[in-house]
From TrEMBL:
It comes from Collinsella tanakaei YIT 12063. Keywords: ATP-binding, Nucleotide-binding, Transport. Gene3D superfamilies: P-loop containing nucleotide triphosphate hydrolases. Belongs to the ABC transporter superfamily. One of its GO terms (biological process) is transmembrane transport. Residues 10-260 form the ABC transporter domain. PROSITE patterns: ABC_TRANSPORTER_1 (PS00211), ABC_TRANSPORTER_2 (PS50893). It holds the Pfam family oligo_HPY. The lineage of its organism: Bacteria, Bacillati, Actinomycetota, Coriobacteriia, Coriobacteriales. This is ABC transporter domain-containing protein. One of its GO terms (molecular function) is ATP binding.
Amino acid sequence: MSQDNSRNLIEVQHLTKSFVADTDFFGRPTSFVQAVDDVSFTIRRGEAFGLVGESGCGKTTIGKMICGLLKPTSGQILFEGRDITALGQRDRRAMCRDIQLVFQDPYASLNPRMTIGKIIAEPILTNKILPKDQVDERVDELLELVGLAPYMKNRYPHEFSGGQRQRVGIARALALNPKLIVCDEPVSALDVSIQAQVLNLLDDLKEQLGLTYLFIAHGLNVVKHISDRVGVMYLGRMMEIAPKESLYTEPLCPYTQALLSAIPSPDPKLQRRRIILEGDVPSPIDPPAGCRFASRCFAKIGACDVSAPEQREVLPDHICACRRYDNVAPELARDLSLEIQRDAARPSYGRGSDLINDDPVVTPEA
Ligand SMILES: Nc1ncnc2c1ncn2[C@@H]1O[C@H](COP(=O)(O)OP(=O)(O)OP(=O)(O)O)[C@@H](O)[C@H]1O
């Protein structure tokens, strides 16, 4: 990864986290869940880094380790060049002011007994950011920043809609002027129409306040709008990292291609070639020895079962951990990003045709 380090706000290096899955009669661990395994990536100042992958692949665990809520098993997290995993409690608390979290569930993340004014003021008072007589004014300012009226501060969370509650959660995260906000699936609990509003708000705040985001989501469609670069995870491993433009048009890893093919087309007259992955995700307690995705990969070769390739920069700024990245038909990648006209002849994939899962093209109703 050749990069100017001063551009990076966060550098995650060989991060690993395992949880105890089971213990024996004496309470000694007998098996472990490998939630995150040797993951490395950077987040540059002022960028939104999207982290995607299906449920259980380790996204939230990474977010929690960056926020200091979980201690890594091994690896480093450099924040402005300092390893936050090695800090003492006081230094970590100070550092945590710079890294705030917006939670997935706006219904569960706000204290129902506090007014939203108090919820937003709490971190300011606890961290003694402002004199008490200025806190009220700051709360009004934060409410306006997230599109809520200051008079609403005397209301309780149950008096707000899901979208409004998520705005309160964002205001609370902004209260300490953080440098990085970890957004853990911030819109997945909201209606689709409200999702777009909250995503637009986050995008506007990023421009206005020069924020940096780690934006966690299940699917590539949610992060497409907001992210500058995207990392794709599978079963604890980082499979691919690329700028948004190249990830969506030139996905190199077969798993990324499968995720992209699952994005529904907004135009019913257009159809997209779907890659249906067969089989289940292996258990994180006993993950495959080679590439984590090998058991479901349509492009795998024998070596994929034996050893996992390292993450490496295979195109400028495009990192991939797949030894088959140059063997999967480029036409397939193009079809996934450009979409195929419904009546167009199906393209021949040549070399890739024996590799891809040639499932039928789904034809939407006219
Ligand atoms: N405290 C814990 N104890 C034991 N196992 C855990 C713990 N937290 C997470 N795990 C396991 O670690 C793996 C990764 O979990 P994580 O929540 O990071 O995944 P995720 O990608 O964020 O999933 P989701 O999108 O569903 O939130 C899962 O197998 C999960 O069961």
